[in-house]
Amino acid sequence: MKNTSVSLQDFKRAKELFQLKDTVAINRLKKRYKKMIREIHPDIAGNNANTVNQTQALTEAYHCILTFCEEQEINISDTSFKRRHLFAWQKPGWMAGETANNDT
Fold first, then answer.
1. C or N: which end of the chain has fewer Cβ atoms within 10 Å?
2. DSSP tag of 91
3. Does residue 95 carry a pLDDT above 90?
4. How many CA atoms lie within 13 A of 58 on its CB side?
């Protein structure tokens, strides 16, 4: 794992800014960031010190959480996959795009 210079206090502040609990999917974090940045970006909300500071704080918080998530190891074992996709993997041909009603 990389040695990052983010303190626990900064990390907690980043979670609060995004209103995150203890789990987050990266795709949801990205969507939330894009939505929030559109609301406060100086090009949209007006170019003043407040919007510039808010944009910078949001971007730093986003990168803080994203970096933490990217550094985590993810269990990609067959068992983990089966647990997450309990029903999909049990259907023959699901990866080939077949549907459950192809019994003709």
1. C
2. S
3. no
4. 21
Burial class (CB in 10 A: 0-12, 13-18, 19+), 43: exposed
DSSP single-letter state for residue 103: -
For the chain, the domains span 8-74
**Euclidean distance between CA atoms 69 and 1, whole angstroms:** 11
Angle subtended by helix axes 26-40 and 49-70, to nearest 10: 170
How many other CB atoms sit within 10 Å of the CB of residue 24? Answer: 16
Per-residue pLDDT of 14-38, as tens digits, reads 999 999 999 999 999 999 999 999 9
Does domain 8-74 fall under CATH 1.10.287? My reply is yes
- Whole-number Å distance between alpha carbons of 19 and 58: 12
CA distances from 7 to 19, 51, 70, 92, 100 (A): 18, 25, 17, 48, 49
This prediction has a pTM of 0.69
DSSP-derived secondary structure letter, 10:
H
